[in-house]
Amino acid sequence: MFSTAQIGIDLGTANILVYSKEKGIILNEPSVVALNIDTRDVLAIGIEAKKMVGKTPSHIVAVRPLRDGVIADFDVTASLLKEIMKKASKNMGLAMRKPNVVVCAPTGSTSVERRAILDAVRSCGAKNVHIIEEPVAAAIGADLPVEEPTANVVVDIGGGTTEVAIISYGGVVSSNSVRVGGDKLDEAIIQYVRKTYNILIGERTAEQIKIDIGYAPIEHEKLTMEIRGRDLVNGLPKTIELHSFEIQEAMGELLHQLLEALRATLEDCPPELSGDIVDQGVLLTGGGALLNGLKEWISDEIFVPVHVAPNPLESVAIGTGRSLSFIDKLQKATV
């Protein structure tokens, strides 16, 4: 007889992660689906599909069905989730017979968007599906004491959105969600290179630039990087050299929007919890937390200690899985 599997899913704009209580992170794949647009057949998902981005013939497209942290294309997301669940059950070494699932949603998502997430996961054969707010999951995954009546401030910088929340006693006291994340930063780099150098680069190149020489607005030693793109004047491939100061400038405005969301959330904080924030500080999580100099910059701007989660890319997924053991308490707090 099979015991009911318990899994947590971080349905991210950039990556989908699946966490199992027994085995930890059992799957981490990019949220990309390669489709044949003539037949609507799914040709590849995850890493295989991501390799195809910008490199496919006209009848095959590599799409990201999740945008800004929510489902943009329901059918494609359902197909992606079915494949993800198949892979996850293989990795667990057992057939997941109607698992109990906790899946996360952005704090700013509407009831319609949440219903779409529930329906997509149920269509994959899940027995019970619970939704948990992303910052709460991130806090649980980073080992913060979310059930206690003390303030925990989480800034979850994902691919599509940045979620800022003050969590106390298992619920969100104050929160803000801005549609600024890793994707928007990549887009800003693409636009900057296009405007300044008349060169078109792809999303994958922009992401690599951000990782290698992207910096928050702090002083740093100049770094350079060679990139290749298509010259928009003559249409030929061209190689140019970029340096970190110009990439810092390209991302500056978006990073200030992120900072404003954090400030607005802290301004809404009840006075009783403000003292805890000064002691505990702010926790950065999500892939964006790894941006060079971000921790130091935010700390200088808000005069509060800032920490990066031990494993920022996996915090939300770990938190969703762990939350199953006390989901009733959390749902009472978030209803």
TrEMBL record:
Keywords linked to the UniProt accession: ATP-binding, Cell shape, Cytoplasm, Nucleotide-binding
Subcellular location: Cytoplasm
Positions bound to ATP: 13-15, 159-161, 207-210, 287-290
One Pfam family matching this protein: MreB_Mbl
Domain of life: Bacteria
Subunit structure: Forms polymers.
This protein's name: Cell shape-determining protein MreB
InterPro entries listed in its UniProt record: ATPase_NBD (IPR043129), MreB (IPR004753), MreB_MamK-like (IPR056546)
The protein's role, per its UniProt record: Forms membrane-associated dynamic filaments that are essential for cell shape determination. Acts by regulating cell wall synthesis and cell elongation, and thus cell shape. A feedback loop between cell geometry and MreB localization may maintain elongated cell shape by targeting cell wall growth to regions of negative cell wall curvature.
Gene behind this protein: mreBH
